[in-house]
């Protein structure tokens, strides 16, 4: 365990934050592709799980920009906020996955007919009805979209937390070339 923590400390905050940014963008692009290309209709909980990505992507970019101008404490705060957002998102995904496995009931309002935002304005997109949050429309290796969102959110939380810790560690580290007298 100590060796794993030492390896995490060795990862630069730029690399950890950059990897989190790339993974967050790839995940939300994949979600939109499944919707617009694959024809999968997201339920209300699915759409709510996207909020963490919409918030985290600009925060991660901002934190990386702050690192570039040596504002490490503020960057660490943004990375920490992203880590918390993805931990909360993992909880929401776990809730939905549990409802899909019938461990508990989904929210009563989950499949209520409402107008949902879509990427297209064609007639097909405007007339779509949301699916039930308690039914998995797709699974891979036993995990639904919600299950995979839990995995992605936990990885992203770890990446953002690693970046935050690295930014703070570098803030307090001795400058390169420093030798005590």
Index terms:
181 residues, disordered C terminus, mainly alpha, two-stranded antiparallel sheet
Fold blueprint:
Blueprint: H1 2-10, H2 13-36, H3 44-68, H4 72-100, H5 123-126, E1 139-140, E2 143-144, H6 145-172
Antiparallel strand pairs: 1-2
- Which residues form runs of ≥5 with pLDDT under 50? 112-117, 173-181
Shape: elongated
Number of β-strand runs? 2
Strand content: under 5%
Number of domains: 1
Secondary structure class reads: mainly alpha
Mean pLDDT: 76
Rounded to an integer, what's the Rg over CA atoms? 19 Å
Helix content: 55-70%
Query: What is the string of SSEs from the N terminus onward?
Result: HHHHHEEH
How many H/I helical runs? 6
In whole angstroms, how far apart are the ends?
35 Å
Largest sheet: 2 strands, antiparallel
Q: What is the strand arrangement across the widest sheet?
A: 1-2
Describe the 3D structure.
The chain is mainly alpha-helical and 181 residues long. The protein has one domain. The protein has 6 helices and 2 strands. The protein has helices at 2-10, 13-36, 44-68, 72-100, 123-126, 145-172; strands at 139-140, 143-144. The chain has a two-stranded antiparallel sheet with strand order 1-2. The longest helix is centred in the middle third of the chain and has 29 residues, at 72-100. It is elongated. The two termini are 35 Å apart.
């Amino acid at each position: 365990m100590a060796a794993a923590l030492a390896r995490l400390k060795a990862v630069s905050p730029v690399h950890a934050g950059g990897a989190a940014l790339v993974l967050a963008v790839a995940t939300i692009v994949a979600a939109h592709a499944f919707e617009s290309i694959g024809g999968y209709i997201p339920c209300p909980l699915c759409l709510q799980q996207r909020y963490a990505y919409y918030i985290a992507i600009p925060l991660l970019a901002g934190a990386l920009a702050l690192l570039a101008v040596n504002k490490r404490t503020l960057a660490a705060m943004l990375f920490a906020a992203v880590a918390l957002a993805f931990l909360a998102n993992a909880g929401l995904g776990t809730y939905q996955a549990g409802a899909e496995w019938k461990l508990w009931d989904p929210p009563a309002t989950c499949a209520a007919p409402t107008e949902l935002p879509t990427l297209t304005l064609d007639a097909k997109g405007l007339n779509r009805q949301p699916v039930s949050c308690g039914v998995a429309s797709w699974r891979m290796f036993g995990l639904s979209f919600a299950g995979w969102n839990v995995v992605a959110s936990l990885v992203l939380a770890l990446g953002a937390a690693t970046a935050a810790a690295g930014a703070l560690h570098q803030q307090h580290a001795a400058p390169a070339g420093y030798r005590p007298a």
